[in-house]
Amino acid sequence: MIRFKPGAARWAPPRLLSRAPTLAVPTTWAAAAVAYRLTCPLARDDALSARLVSSAVLCTVITGLVLHVRRTLLRELRRARGIAEAAQSALLRPPPPRADGLAVAAVHLSADRGARIGGDLYEVIATEHGVRAVIGDVRGHGLDAVRTVAAVLGSFREAAHDEARLEGVLRRLERAMARHLRERAHTESDPAVAEEFVTVLLLEILPDGEVRALNCGHPWPHLLTGARADPLDRTDPLPPLGPFPLPRELPPVPCGRLLPGEALVLHTDGAEEARDTEGRFFPLCDVLTEAARARPLTPQTVLRTVLTALLRHSAGPPKDDVALLILRNERHVRHSAPALRPRVTADHLQYPG
């Protein structure tokens, strides 16, 4: 005996009704063509004028069908793109404008036309352990890269709050990446899955401005101070996440202090490797030096300066994904109260107050 689910009959009519307008137009055109062929005497006349009229009718029908199919495909494409952009915006959401006294701004330029994100990722989170930031670059583009971005960002957003130490956050990212690659290897037959990797830079900025970093194959950020732009550190990075296991010991790299008024510029390699028509690389450090001289120095002015120079240099959108993340220290300088010292007199010790 055939059983029907109660919800099936209830939801079937709306689906048919929603598709009815789509099917009505081609059905009408096809019915008109059949009716003309069966009922119109000109369709059975062998005269030249009758044949010309029949050909014109058929061309009109075919043109109408083609235009209808084209409009339907464009409408479905816009709908699918809207859904994809909504999902991508939720995945690579804009960072908060401020995070525990740090002004934040970010931008992403995708190399894929019509896409908002590709293989680059970034996030800034204010936690009880300090402000933690991540920027990364996934090998490749397309949906596979977006899935990897989702796996890494999802892990970071949890680990940034849960892990007291920065190396614990990196371990969580490493496990998330390994789990993601195992799941892809089980569902895909592409041997290139084993070669996937993601470069990651983790930063931790403490309340006193102390900066610590863990770098897995990613470009080092630049420090904007005064009228200069210098690389934050040049120590050898760890291997990217994916193909090779990380070392047993993961001591964070001390990078000094981010003083009030100074800014850090995190970027992906697409910014440094953008070329002009003559094959010259984008002079990122020189452009950041120019941005450091701007007054007032804000994350927005830095982004505007870099993007304007980058688009002018590459004569259009870059050939690779570009992500920029700016962190500027806007915390007030906290002067600690002087310690109470005893005032010595000739007779005895006296203490103030």
What does this structure look like?
It is a single chain. By secondary structure, the protein is of the alpha+beta class. The protein has seven helices and 13 strands. Strands 1-2-11-10-7-8 form a six-stranded antiparallel β-sheet. The chain has a five-stranded antiparallel β-sheet with strand order 3-4-5-6-9, covered by helices on one side. The protein has a two-stranded antiparallel ribbon with strand order 12-13. α1 (6-39) packs antiparallel against α2 (48-91) and α6 runs antiparallel to α7 (299-314). The protein is elongated, with a radius of gyration of 31 Å. The termini are far apart. The relative contact order is 0.11.
Brief summary of the model shown:
This protein is of the alpha+beta class and 353 residues long. The chain has seven helices and 13 strands.
List the helices and strands and how they pair.
Elements: H1 6-39, H2 48-91, E1 98-99, E2 102-109, E3 120-127, E4 130-138, H3 142-162, H4 166-187, E5 198-205, E6 210-216, E7 222-225, E8 228-231, E9 253-257, E10 263-267, H5 269-272, H6 284-292, H7 299-314, E11 322-329, E12 343-344, E13 349-350
Antiparallel strand pairs: 1-2, 2-11, 3-4, 4-5, 5-6, 6-9, 7-8, 7-10, 10-11, 12-13
